Amino acid sequence: MFDKVNDECGIFGISLKENSKDLIENLYLGMFALQHRGQESAGMSYYYNNKLEVIKSKGLVAGTFFDTVPFNREAKTGIGHTRYPSKYSSNFINAQPLLFNLNKGTITIAKNGSIPKAKQLREELIRDGAIFQTESHVEILAHILSKIKNDNFEEALIEALSKFEGAYSILIQKDDMVIAIKDRFGIRPLSVGEIENGYAFASETNALDLISAKNVRELEPGEIIFCKEGVAESKFLPNIQPPKQCIFELVYIARPDSTVFGESVHTARVNMGKKLAIINKNEVDVVIAVPDSGNVAALGFSKESGVGLDYGLIRNHYIGRTFIRPTQDMRSFAVRIKLNPVKPVVDGKRMAVIDDSLVRGTTSKRIVKMLKEAGAKEVHMFLSSPEVKHSCFFGIDTPTEKELISANKNPEEVAKEIGADSVTFLRVEDLKGCVKEPDKFCFACFDGNYCIEVE
Amino acid sequence: MFDKVNDECGIFGISLKENSKDLIENLYLGMFALQHRGQESAGMSYYYNNKLEVIKSKGLVAGTFFDTVPFNREAKTGIGHTRYPSKYSSNFINAQPLLFNLNKGTITIAKNGSIPKAKQLREELIRDGAIFQTESHVEILAHILSKIKNDNFEEALIEALSKFEGAYSILIQKDDMVIAIKDRFGIRPLSVGEIENGYAFASETNALDLISAKNVRELEPGEIIFCKEGVAESKFLPNIQPPKQCIFELVYIARPDSTVFGESVHTARVNMGKKLAIINKNEVDVVIAVPDSGNVAALGFSKESGVGLDYGLIRNHYIGRTFIRPTQDMRSFAVRIKLNPVKPVVDGKRMAVIDDSLVRGTTSKRIVKMLKEAGAKEVHMFLSSPEVKHSCFFGIDTPTEKELISANKNPEEVAKEIGADSVTFLRVEDLKGCVKEPDKFCFACFDGNYCIEVE
Amino acid sequence: MFDKVNDECGIFGISLKENSKDLIENLYLGMFALQHRGQESAGMSYYYNNKLEVIKSKGLVAGTFFDTVPFNREAKTGIGHTRYPSKYSSNFINAQPLLFNLNKGTITIAKNGSIPKAKQLREELIRDGAIFQTESHVEILAHILSKIKNDNFEEALIEALSKFEGAYSILIQKDDMVIAIKDRFGIRPLSVGEIENGYAFASETNALDLISAKNVRELEPGEIIFCKEGVAESKFLPNIQPPKQCIFELVYIARPDSTVFGESVHTARVNMGKKLAIINKNEVDVVIAVPDSGNVAALGFSKESGVGLDYGLIRNHYIGRTFIRPTQDMRSFAVRIKLNPVKPVVDGKRMAVIDDSLVRGTTSKRIVKMLKEAGAKEVHMFLSSPEVKHSCFFGIDTPTEKELISANKNPEEVAKEIGADSVTFLRVEDLKGCVKEPDKFCFACFDGNYCIEVE
Amino acid sequence: MFDKVNDECGIFGISLKENSKDLIENLYLGMFALQHRGQESAGMSYYYNNKLEVIKSKGLVAGTFFDTVPFNREAKTGIGHTRYPSKYSSNFINAQPLLFNLNKGTITIAKNGSIPKAKQLREELIRDGAIFQTESHVEILAHILSKIKNDNFEEALIEALSKFEGAYSILIQKDDMVIAIKDRFGIRPLSVGEIENGYAFASETNALDLISAKNVRELEPGEIIFCKEGVAESKFLPNIQPPKQCIFELVYIARPDSTVFGESVHTARVNMGKKLAIINKNEVDVVIAVPDSGNVAALGFSKESGVGLDYGLIRNHYIGRTFIRPTQDMRSFAVRIKLNPVKPVVDGKRMAVIDDSLVRGTTSKRIVKMLKEAGAKEVHMFLSSPEVKHSCFFGIDTPTEKELISANKNPEEVAKEIGADSVTFLRVEDLKGCVKEPDKFCFACFDGNYCIEVE
């Protein structure tokens, strides 16, 4: 409904030394904290009564899923998943964790990320006798693992992962063992935390905060942590590469209260706003954010420029995913339903409007129109990221290049298209200056330099 | 909740020459007619827009499933399934049809029946690299099929089925082809019918009646009908055996308005009642059925004996599967909620009470008690089947031998246990006299003569 | 969907000496037993924590209502209601029991029946200042009661009821008192039963059976039983009239295992079937019922005539109220979905088909057609009631006279209309011969003799 | 769950000259915009086919209610309501609009506000013969209206309202007329807007924005606008009083993009923050808001003080009303689930934390603790309102005085209680300086000066 790129899921897991009556509640809370990473379905697996059980529901963690969670059961290991519907179908059959009975035992898998060569790998495996029942990429990993002849599960898994080229952070549950995995470029985030008697793993650290786990560190690229009965052991994939962490996690995906890749999301976004202020060439009277995606960068812009911040657009948080437009006419209300201008802030002003990125430009066009109708004298759009010119194949849901406005128009043309008086993007160099270790990031959606061969 | 054996599913399919706006409605109606064969879940697949789509829901065909059926779509092939939860778990993941993407294309499978060596087959396949995601036996067939190296799908399927030893009637959908299959002993029922421009397949002929299809015949043991674009072609499995049709379909499972295995269910049950009357040695004043399982046999008993039939027990049909007892105390009401005696029919009478079979005896015990409390002078139980002494491994859900009352007690002891004045079973020879072709049937649950090696 | 008259509700109540943990469960079970009298909504009130609480849900007693019932609460009084949507709207706002706060305290009311002058009474009360929030007739009674200036509640209620002319059996709950009421003609059924420490009241005695209450007797016309803390006291309305009990309760509405108006429903229906056999002039080979409405009368017909009873139509009980036809085409399937002929019973036969009554004739027409298509040589319809020529205003939901087939056609014309070879109705005199006390009954829908002035 | 006062509902209505296919959609959108004023239930009435129809559902406007809205119907008048559960029970029976059939016709009523003498009025009316079926205050108005002997509806309504002393903004629908009403003190907000061919009425102007209606003005105290077929006519209640507009609408209840009482909510809150900065005596390093209630005031504080604003607490918007804590232990997570600190903003800082008000202090206590655990050096709480020392009886849901922290403790004691280094409240004089027309407001919750006699 709204013109945003989207992450493909949040993952969370816990492994304790002993059974605990809190495990399932904490697992649930961790998933709840990662709700923003995926609202299509929620699922968890846990080890109970010497068996892996899986529960999944469509919709939110606090929706019908809640009613199915066995809060009164004691367990010591579990993994959870919040799913965003990616390029492949939104079919519920793809909801994770998926359970597989194979020659290495029974496992469940929850993944955040994407495998660029998934189609080809899948076809090869099928040709070779494998059967696929879902469209999920994790089913590919299960089949690769199943074909490996090695009774040592840890070795077999490492061998399988080395054949599973892609961008992924994965949690696998095998009986009372939880395994946390990062691809060899470390593209997608995954942090490890410490809790009493065990460890927790989360896509973002705000999930660790919620269960009072201490954030220890990000996993290394290619790291595999086998965690059983309170003991965690790290191994590594072969052929580890220089990191290529997804910069979009800092630009838009992650919550500002999280740390990902060892970087504070809040701090990075403040820096992005400051950079925008530095490169700004327009005189403006007020700075506003497109809430909530532009909030933190707008703060930085204001600080750096000395132009006052204000709240010019109010967001209605009751939309959720349940708002389905009944008629074609209501479609045009879409942005209006979500955002409403605050007239005294807007009227007669030359405005700097801060957002994180421009994808197709459709929402921005409506926002500019809304602000002008509310009396804005000038609307200058600022994006805390460079022009998105290339599709992502590493776990961010982007449209094809044909649909990316910046793949087809320069900033002046974009400004004209969306009705703004100007449009300013950060450059890749600017963005690099906003994080602590710029060389560790992937900027492929801006510059087309993919670290893995793509379609 | 009630002490009955249960079938493991109903299957229904249609294959037309051309797309039709009636196909999905007729598919739905056929499933509706087979609701008594399984109430746990309902599912269908159909070929739409050059793709196999699958929809499934928990519960009844006329329940939430109804809301998901795309009645307005045109299609020319589809298969449907009503599922009874069998020995393996009632987990929704097992709901059929199941869809498999394999090296022979994409197929959906709906099955009625059981594979005695399922566990062993599954373990072998897993050892060999196969991955199982459900507990359903049809997943075994998919894996066997996937391993066969033969580009000719029909030949490959026949080869796969010949390695899939068991009792089954199966419908497979592959694109716009529907394939109807019977195991080589012909244990479970499956009839073929003719409709305008095509064919229909159904576990029982009442489903053909509902869509105004003409009942043509039962499939032969080991027959495989490939039906595509209005043309049906029969092939056969190798090593076909003398038929071993499930006699319990006639005793209890099938609806009396159906023909199964070429035998009228109604007529067979009237004959069973007559036989019971012939072997009866007690003086009785009235004949009543345990509704609805004993209805038709009671009619036959009355006709043969000249003793008047009456309705002594009224059944509440609003129970469905939704009645869950809130307290332990309500458990004892279970039979009462379902059945209530009609006092003027019962009071002061010597009664012949006709039911189809005795499994554990728990429900019968409560019925006898209820009738005695309503004033019955004598209660003589008559079962229109022999003593069930052996578990079924061929698609009927029976308890273990330990729980089968007749595996452990003779009729006198059974009578004592359930509080009846006498209990009379048909003998296997009697039952054979009730059908047209007795040699074609399996009586293993009575005599232990299994045609396929079992666990 | 099917061409039947329908009752307008079942009522059930319990009053105990002391709080009991079984009260709510027994209340629920009593309602469950009266489900056939109304499937539109279910509701109960009970006295808990010194307050009247009301719960109601759309649909079946064993449906969503079940989930709302507080089975673990202890209470000593409660009343329940199963509602059939009558001439006035099916709007949920009319679901009973309704709660009223008025100058005599707080009361809840559950009613079975109808008030012929409801519209006029309602308009008078509104003119006089009363406010109506529902379309239910019980709201009229509440307003009449409220206007009476008498601090003695029992006297005030009797005065109110004497102004509330109509056909009704009512249960009122006022704190820990349950009041059972019958109109002064005793038109609608209501029985009182004894249980440990208290009394139960039920539209039909099968509800008393289910909670193991002993059936004591029907209430008298105009009787009002005030039941509090285990003590029951009878009072009477002024101007009590000779009874005019609804004969349709015996013909069709009540369950055969019930006693209503002191008459066994089963016995009365057997007698009706016998009478039909006596007045029959056609040679027939077999007797079948339209299930379940004609079941018991068919038995009587067979007994009397000596012609064999058989089961020629099988009913699908999975329809419930959830079956909504998706397309106009499926409408014609309506009867088929419910009933299917048993070919070997029908083929080549001259059939006596027994049903309880003919209203519009639409369903019968389809049944005759279905039987003829299944090979019936002759179809002779027999109705265990006279020609329905007049609408009921006393609690049975009948169409207007214009729609009543027998108000407009004689039996020969009816036979032609529905395609039958003949149609035979009982005469009123015949029907009188089927019950113990014929002078106590109302036959107005047959003869137009209304005991209360109607619209 | 969270320690906030709450408004008791939002109301919205439209009256057009002619039927329009947009009316119901616009009615729906207006309600959606007022969702923040009440999430317990949603309801609307509209005039269709010469009849008033009412639909209501539990929960959100975009929840199950959405599915019941007949978007394809043409209508010209309608009113809607979003309900907050107030002191009287959350029972669904109280969901508005309520429909009343009375001697002046059929009307529906939707109200925002409260009647201090409701209990007494209700008891008098009941004594006088009125029947109450709900706990809603609007039922009182209906009864007063019903008792007035005057065939002129407009005069009768004005007479009724003059006896209905309280704080209320009301919408009444009578056939194709919509009537907008404000009490004679003008305590609760209600604005009128113009749309093509008619008028709209809304608790807040953001609802007018959403349907592109032009905000005309607030209703005057005691004003009654009768709006029919595109013509609006104003009348007035007798004995109109100097306005006493609820200041809490500006402090907390209304959305910042709304105008209420002719005052911009945003501007008023910026002023409040500025005043807080002026009276502040503490040195602080950073200003943060408790989101979202303190957002705008924090902006004003930062502007005035020159201390940088930052986002130190992140709010999870996926909570909604569905989050029910499964265990007692999860209760302590309540604040955490909603808010999480942003470490780099908090760590080592002396913080000014801005919120709108302190009621019980329970949430603030947890926020202070959370910030201190995240490293805050000092936490100074600033409230953009005075100490709440008195309960509201005029439509804001406040606890009793016993529970109000400031009724029992001075600021120093409050600071100690919640663990803050200091707590600063605005004084009433300060607050007066934040709005354009301070004399028009009610400050009773701060100073106890009630304009209407209360319990």
Task: Explain what you see.
The structure is a homotetramer of 455-residue chains. Chain A is α+β, with helices and mostly antiparallel strands. Chain A contains 17 helices and 25 strands. In chain A, helix 4 (138-147) crosses helix 5 and helix 8 crosses helix 9 (295-305). The radius of gyration of chain A is 22 Å and the shape is globular. At the B-C interface, helix 1, helix 6, helix 9, strand 19 and helix 12 of B face helix 1, helix 6, helix 9, strand 19 and helix 12 of C.
How much of the residues of chain A is beta strand, in percent? 25-35%
Number of H/I helices of chain A: 17
First CA to last CA of chain A: what distance?
27 Å
Main-sheet strand order of chain A equals 4-3-5-2-11-10-12
Unreliable runs of chain A = none
- Residue share in helix of chain A: 25-40%
Largest interface: B-C, 57 and 57 residues
The helix-and-strand class of chain A reads alpha+beta
Rounded average pLDDT of chain A: 93
Radius of gyration of chain A: 22 Å
Subunit organisation of the chains: homotetramer
| Shape label of chain A | globular
Largest sheet of chain A: 7 strands, antiparallel
Strand tally of chain A is 25
